[in-house]
């Protein structure tokens, strides 16, 4: 199957390890991954902040870049939700574009959808000997309805202890520009999310979206450096679940958490 | 004509939120209360196998009402008038208050009892009556608490949600006329008993009652009030004159349509299968109930809201408050931060539409959300609140295109860079290089302080740094791509 990887702008710059992990997983399964270099950003930040005019060129660009592929996969619930849920709305008054969106949107998958629904695999032969908890991000949960797909993938990982996250379905408080425009409320929501994560005793919190993870990871990082807890002590780390799935017994996931 | 009254935020949301965030007692009260109702709602909604179909019906009936609103209003007026009621029309809050004040004056009384009603709060009726020398007594327990405390409601359904039992006991002890302080504990039964004694006297002496309505049926001219305590029913039966203040979107075409909403509303709002009291009245009848009945139909920005094809779905709202109870933002700051009698997710889309986005600080309300979608999922009439939030943000951005703004410049620049492969790759390289000195030899992957505008981020959390190698650089290094 000709699978195109949409790595997303945040991943490209800040979390390239997630993209590398997706490549690793799909190639291990025997698929050829292509990375169309024309890609950039799905336009979510623009559209959700009200900048529709600025988002539209990016919508067109995404459609141009990926139209020819059988399947497009992105390791980001919110970017896939943007394509599947918001593109049809944004393209509504341009019939030509709307038609192309209608064709492409159903072939655009979040990683766990591609693996479980399209490729029919849950056991990727991964190994990750740590205690992990999973945060289902809002777009994955309520827009894409990913359900337990990521959890099924994680449960099949050798030596991984999956622990339930209390209040898992509550928003972490990221919300794109919300985190800056309403930093106070965002911080309060983040504090509660970090409390829940820490209460599990997990070493890693995983999710399907690096934007939310950057926010949660940033909160956890600040906590781990609190005076008295010993500056560089490793706290709980935020990690994209793809990076967990990429690790095997022979090649452990080395990039996890820092992705540098 | 845009709406007026208690639907205008005086302070930008982030600022108002900051004040509330600093109150840990408020936060824990809100958390406990919203989670309790939330869990109850989930349980009773889960009992109905046809819940989704009911939601779809509720939305469809309300959409039909909005499509045919002028005709249905005419029909309602004719039916209500034929049944002996008098119908009045008010374009905004001031007009509505003036009509009600005149009607109360005509009866010669200076005290009225009130049934909990969002419409009267919206138009600021109590304040207007007080200015005219008329005392309005709230008979809903929570509303009474708020009134005695000289406070504003913090929730659509549970106006006193921000107080706990101990705080309520103190308010009663201090403010309730004639209360027996020595017998007053913070037990719910003791508090309810004190309120009952206080209100009984009012019910027996009041000659005028003021209500809102949950539904108004066009076919028959009937008004419907749904409540839990029964105080409303006392107000609806004892006084000689009844004045009902009703938003024009409250209509339902036929009596049969009620069936859908009497299932949707109680389960969504209080988590009950059925609400304890449903009162319906159609005009007047000799020797039974009020002998004078006035219905004030209030527009107050609803016609303008209806004119927006995306935003109009906000007018489907049946004020169940389910969206408030599931909203993570509301849970942290409570209702006052929204500056309107309509708080939470529905307030964030309704208030700026009713008043126009530039009234007071209402322009900040569509940003008071992470777009997490919990409100849409909970809404019994399927109002896609996140969709409307984004739509209103867009309307705001487009309306102010002429003015310079740092944000628009940044958004425009980013869009320009991102739509070209070379520009984009160069920008990624530049960002990575710019971050390199912050990474302290690759040891750190987070940074504690960033300069403005990113300082908004590092105020509450560390920021991740761009990686040493972008993904596309890595990919190119593999000898492909
Ligand atoms: S928007 Fe929906 S959930 Fe919120 S109060 Fe209105 S009807 Fe209820």
UniProtKB/TrEMBL annotation, chain A:
Signal peptide range: none
Record's protein name: L-lactate dehydrogenase complex protein LldE
Protein origin, superkingdom: Bacteria
Entries under Pfam families matching the protein: CCG (PF02754)
Organism: Micromonospora pisi
Domain Cysteine-rich, chain residue ranges per copy: 3-83, 132-216
GO cellular component: cytosol
GO molecular function: oxidoreductase activity
InterPro entries listed in its UniProt record: Cys_rich_dom
UniProtKB/TrEMBL annotation, chain B:
A molecular-function term among this protein's GO annotations: metal ion binding
Listed Pfam families: Fer4_8, LUD_dom, LutB_C
4Fe-4S ferredoxin-type domain boundaries: 314-383
Domain Lactate utilization protein B C-terminal: 401-479
Database matches in PROSITE patterns: 4FE4S_FER_1 (PS00198)
Organism per entry: Micromonospora pisi
Name by which UniProt lists this protein: L-lactate dehydrogenase complex protein LldF
Domain LUD: 73-298
NCBIfam families: LutB/LldF family L-lactate oxidation iron-sulfur protein
Keywords: 4Fe-4S, Electron transport, Iron, Iron-sulfur, Metal-binding, Repeat, Transport
């Amino acid at each position: 199957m000709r699978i195109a990887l949409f790595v997303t702008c945040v991943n490209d710059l800040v979390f390239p390890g997630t993209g590398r992990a997706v490549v690793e997983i799909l190639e291990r399964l025997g698929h050829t991954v292509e990375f169309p270099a024309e890609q950039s950003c799905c336009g979510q930040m623009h559209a959700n902040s009200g900048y529709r005019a600025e988002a539209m060129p990016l919508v067109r660009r995404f459609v141009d870049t990926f139209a020819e592929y059988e399947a497009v996969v992105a390791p980001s619930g919110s970017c896939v939700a943007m394509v599947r849920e918001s593109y049809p709305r944004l393209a509504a008054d341009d019939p030509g574009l709307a038609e192309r969106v209608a064709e492409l949107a159903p072939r655009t998958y979040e990683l766990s959808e591609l693996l479980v629904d399209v490729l029919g695999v849950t056991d990727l032969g991964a190994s990750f000997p740590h205690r992990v908890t999973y945060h289902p991000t809002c777009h994955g949960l309520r827009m894409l309805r990913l359900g337990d797909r990521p959890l099924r993938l994680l449960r099949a990982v050798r030596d991984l202890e999956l622990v339930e996250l209390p209040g898992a379905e509550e928003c972490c408080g990221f919300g794109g520009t919300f985190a800056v425009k309403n930093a106070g409320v965002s911080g309060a929501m983040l504090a509660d999310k970090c409390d829940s994560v820490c209460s599990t005793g997990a070493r890693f919190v995983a999710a399907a979206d690096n934007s939310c993870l950057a926010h949660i990871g940033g909160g956890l990082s600040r906590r781990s450096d609190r005076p008295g807890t010993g500056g560089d002590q490793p706290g709980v780390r935020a990690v994209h679940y793809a990076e967990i799935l990429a690790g095997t017994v022979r090649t452990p996931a080395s990039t996890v958490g820092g992705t540098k | 004509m845009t709406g007026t009254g208690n639907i205008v935020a005086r302070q930008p949301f982030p600022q108002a939120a900051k004040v509330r965030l600093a109150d840990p007692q408020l936060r824990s009260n809100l958390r406990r209360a919203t989670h309790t109702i939330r869990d109850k709602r989930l349980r009773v909604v889960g009992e109905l196998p046809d819940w989704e179909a009911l939601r779809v019906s509720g939305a469809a009936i309300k959409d039909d009402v909005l499509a045919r609103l002028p005709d249905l209003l005419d029909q309602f007026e004719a039916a209500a008038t034929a049944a002996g009621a008098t119908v009045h029309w008010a374009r905004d809050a001031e007009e509505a208050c003036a009509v009600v004040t005149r009607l109360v004056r005509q009866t010669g009384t200076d005290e009225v009892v009130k049934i909990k009603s969002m419409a009267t709060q919206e138009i600021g009726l109590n304040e207007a009556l007080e200015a005219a020398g008329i005392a309005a007594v709230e008979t809903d327990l929570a509303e009474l608490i708020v009134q005695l405390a000289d406070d504003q409601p913090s929730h659509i359904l549970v106006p006193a949600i921000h107080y706990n039992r101990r705080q309520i006991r103190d308010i009663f002890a201090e403010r309730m006329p004639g209360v027996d302080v020595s017998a007053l504990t913070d037990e719910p039964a003791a508090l309810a008993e004190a309120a009952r004694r206080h209100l009984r006297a009012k019910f027996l002496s009041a000659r005028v009652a003021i209500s809102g309505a949950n539904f108004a049926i066009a076919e028959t001219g009937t008004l419907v009030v749904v409540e839990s305590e029964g105080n409303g029913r006392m107000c609806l039966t004892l006084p000689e004159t009844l004045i009902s203040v009703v938003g024009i979107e409250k209509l339902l075409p036929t009596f049969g349509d009620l069936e859908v909403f009497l299932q949707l509303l109680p389960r969504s709002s209080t988590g009950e299968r059925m609400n304890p009291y449903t009162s319906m009245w159609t005009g007047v009848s000799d020797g039974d109930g009020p002998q004078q009945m006035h219905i004030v139909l209030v527009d107050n920005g609803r016609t303008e809201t209806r004119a927006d094809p995306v935003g109009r779905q906000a007018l489907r709202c049946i004020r169940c408050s389910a969206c408030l109870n599931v909203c993570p933002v509301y849970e942290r700051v409570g209702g006052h931060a929204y500056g309107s009698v309509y708080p939470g997710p529905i307030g964030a889309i309704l208030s700026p539409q009713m008043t126009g986005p530039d009234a007071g600080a209402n322009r900040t309300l569509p940003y008071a959300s992470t777009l997490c979608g919990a409100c849409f999922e909970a809404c019994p009439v399927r109002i896609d609140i996140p969709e409307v939030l984004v739509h209103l943000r867009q309307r705001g951005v487009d309306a102010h295109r002429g003015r310079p703004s740092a944000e628009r410049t940044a958004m425009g620049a980013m869009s320009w860079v991102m739509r070209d492969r070379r520009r984009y790759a160069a920008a990624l390289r530049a960002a990575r290089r710019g971050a390199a000195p912050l990474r302290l030899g690759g040891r750190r992957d987070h940074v504690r302080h960033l300069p403005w505008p990113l300082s908004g981020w590092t105020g509450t959390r560390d920021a991740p740094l761009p990686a040493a190698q972008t993904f596309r650089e890595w990919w190119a290094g593999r000898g492909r791509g």
